[in-house]
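Technical appendix A lists one of the benchmark inputs used to test multi-chain prediction within the project. The record comprises two sequence entries:
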Amino acid sequence: AQTVTQSQPEMSVQEAETVTLSCTYDTSESDYYLFWYKQPPSRQMILVIRQEAYKQQNATENRFSVNFQKAAKSFSLKISDSQLGDAAMYFCACGGTSYGKLTFGQGTILTVHP
Amino acid sequence: EAGVTQSPTHLIKTRGQQATLRCSPISGHTSVYWYQQALGLGLQFLLWYDEGEERNRGNFPPRFSGRQFPNYSSELNVNALELEDSALYLCASSLEGVSGNTIYFGEGSWLTVV
């Protein structure tokens, strides 16, 4: 079984500042993948970044980067130079081979102040 | 390239009726996933189809069912609708089961049960 926990229901950041969203997970899989998805008010789920658990190097996509701590089962998302368009609900998710699905956390609402 | 497409965008049904939601995956994707997102809640996994077979099922009653067609499109059926079935239903697709493959979401179908 897999569980994903996002302990921050809401976060806020000033435009151009940096914010970190937290996520912890638990899985019995040895081969798994971690994802951050963004859901703006349109409700479309948009992939932000993914991390293969077997890779030690943290994934980076432009202003988005992760801090993957495998032993601690922690997978946080850092957003640098925050923009108004980053305002959304952010979901952390974990997927493995045995279950063929992603397990999502409860989400963190990010507000960006101008 | 077209993304995951879902229809209808909105659907209003009466309690006790049946609802059918449809999903076309990204071209080349063989796996289709269905998730339920009730208001204020995270994404709950419903079903996973791959190569026409149901591969995994979430903790939902049997009145939630579906199928995958030879062209990999999928249908979600909800029988004997209850008020609490009102939610956004998200379909996603991937090349195969999640292992290493990112899942991509459609824009969702809003189901309202009155």
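The mean pLDDT of chain B is 93. Chain B touches chain A through 27 residues (CB under 8 Å). Comparable benchmark entries are summarised in Table A2.
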